[in-house]
Amino acid sequence: MLGRLTIDALPFYSWIAMGGAGVTVLGGVVIFVLLTWFKKWGYFWSEWLTSLDHKRIGVMYIALALLMLVRGFVDALMMRSQQAFAYDSGGYLPAGHFDQVFSSHGTIMIFFMAMPFMTGLFNLIVPQQIGTRDVAFPFMNSLSLWFTSSGAGLVLVSLVIGKFSTAGWTGYPPYSGLEYSPGVGVDYWLWAVLISGIGSTLTGINFIVTILKRRAPGMTLLRMPLFTWTVLVSSVLMAFAFPALTVATGLLALDRYLDMHFFTNADGGNMMNFISLLWIWGHPEVYILILPAFGVFSEVVATFSRKALFGYKSLVFATAAIGILSFSVWLHHFFTMGAGANVNAIFGIATMIIGVPTGVKVFDWLFTMYRGRITFDPTMYWTIGFIVTFVIGGVTGVLLAIPPVDYLMHNTTFLVAHFHNMIIPGVLFGYVAGLIYWFPKAIGFQLSAKWGIRAFWCWIIGFYLAFMPLYFLGLLGMPRRMERYEIAAWQPYLIIAAIGAAVILAGVVCMAMQLLVGIKEREKTRDLSGDPFNGRTLEWLTSSPAAPYNFAVIPKVDSLDAFWKMKVDGTAYQRPSGYTDIVMPRNSSLGVIAGAFSFVLGFAMIWYIWWLAALSLLVIGIVVVVRSSMENTDYVITADEVAAIEEQRFNDLARVPRHDTGDPAASPQAAPAPGSAS
Ligand code: HEM
Ligand SMILES: [Cu+2]
């Protein structure tokens, strides 16, 4: 009846595991009690969980990402503190538990922190930025969200019931095969990745179609804001790369459940097939995550330098080039597996070539700032911190792309330092900047700038302390994923790294303060104009937060930086002659239901509860059939209702001063060019 689920699944094997389980359960209980206490279940259900409004879906994605960021960060703290103490002693984490921690850290950070954070920003901003009312497939959007959440849920539950994988975030066979990992851990990883991966494929398709089909009239491809461009390329990569991951994990599932031997050396399988498939997804994944962050930086740099982006077209082409190249380098992830010198050389060179368009971007950002009228908003701190740090990561990446060097550094902490050096500034900093930048658009008031800047300083100092020592440790030969070691020379570096992680912890606390103080001071920073930063792109034309339909009248676009042009021309806030009825997608509970049952399906498969798995698959099937045969999925906002909302909007607008749209280069305040005569 319950498969292999018995009382032994509870984490009585260690106090630390019990602690983690306790915190997880407690968190769930607190949320449950609060919602019940304040009688918010109905509101939560009808306004949020079942909503098909892309803006709300975006907020939910980001809430999930922030929750998982904290969870993944706790793992990081555990690893850093373990390694700081584990010289010549066991430390406090038993080996098997340490392995679970690095596996869940990597899995959470990539799949359940970075991916939802990114998708949340897509959802919040893209439709508004391209001047449309919604994404192309609103219901599919909700499905994607709930598939992702269900995967995250599985990872969280693994902390309480059973154990998580010990096979690392990449789950390489043969270790992840049944023979070496007979327990439930790899199955938790497998189903979490499989289910959320399907959600990501759907998201990719959704945004490709949205961006290609739903742009405002006049917005040609080369008038699209840069963030939208990066989302488009990233979505194309998602739609092409994630199926490879689905196939890889799907075949691994067949190996584990039906003994099919795709990836075992016995019976004709080959583990290299898994590794190839995984990195055919995995390398593009890096760029799936990084490109939208580049998009954020581009928007931020232009807005806060008060200038059009320098080299817009070169940025677009660099984005597309990176997208294409990202599929051609995956073999650098297994230089040491004996492909031969020529193959390695070709992939090494291909890998280095990606540095070229990336370098182009860095120069474009710098030239955008050059002679701009720069405001030191927190988002600019993150941007500049990113540029400096990312360049260092790029250099170590080029080093690793040289196959002989990779032979030396392979699987050392040098590699760990390198990829954190790319992914923390290049992904996380970007999303944080994006969140701060668009927070007023999403919620209606600004986050606390003071705490934002403090958070930045803690993060950046903590980052250097935590990861620079890992480069040296790698040179000293310390392998990654060590739960204890016998070499005294490593310990000082690991202690510094642990201090760094503690400084980052202070940064995380400052971020929480940034939010709390922001909420407390919300009346002061409430955004009535919809355009708090003197923005350039269309999302700043809507109110903050935007009405369900975003635009009462779809704007017409005739240039790059469309909204800026409207402000310069004085046409930005004209009253339309009249309004029409607007049709919007109605809420639907089917997405949540499908998501919930995909969670049950995963859970049942993990514990071999076959009847429950079959049942939940059936429910998901029924949901799909019901939804596809529904005729009436929309509701109408009448012209009168629109007029009332817009009337309120114009009243708000009348209460705030207009921004100055002068050209900074022409203004006396602009700094003279270095070395120029003036
Ligand atoms: C915020 C501060 C962070 C710290 C202190 C940290 C620390 C660590 C540590 C100690 C490891 C294990 C290294 C080893 O194997 O020896 C690790 C692995 C890893 N981290 Fe982080 N990390 C952080 C943030 C992130 C972020 C933001 C991401 C991704 C978005 C990430 C992705 C990974 C991945 C994929 C692994 C490999 C896991 C594996 O070996 O299977 N980390 N990190
Ligand atoms: Cu790669």
Instruction: Indicate the overall shape.
Output: globular
User: In angstroms, what separates the terminal alpha carbons?
Assistant: 83 Å
Poorly predicted parts: 667-678
- Our count of helices gives 21
Radius of gyration: 25 Å
Q: In which range does the helix fraction lie?
A: 55-70%
Small-molecule components bound = protoporphyrin IX containing FE, copper (II) ion
Largest sheet report? 2 strands, antiparallel
Succession of helices and strands? HHHHHHHHHHHHHHHHHHEHHEH
β-strand percent reads under 5%
Structural class: mainly alpha
Q: If strands are numbered along the chain, what order do they take across the biggest sheet?
A: 1-2
Number of strands: 2
Mean pLDDT: 94
Structure write-up:
Helix 6 runs antiparallel to helix 19 and helix 8 (271-305) runs parallel beside helix 11. This protein has 678 residues and is an all-alpha fold. The chain has helices spanning 15-37, 41-49, 54-85, 95-129, 138-158, 185-213, 226-258, 271-305, 312-325, 341-353, 355-369, 378-400, 403-409, 413-443, 449-475, 491-520, 522-525, 562-569, 590-606, 610-628, 639-654; strands at 582-585, 634-637.
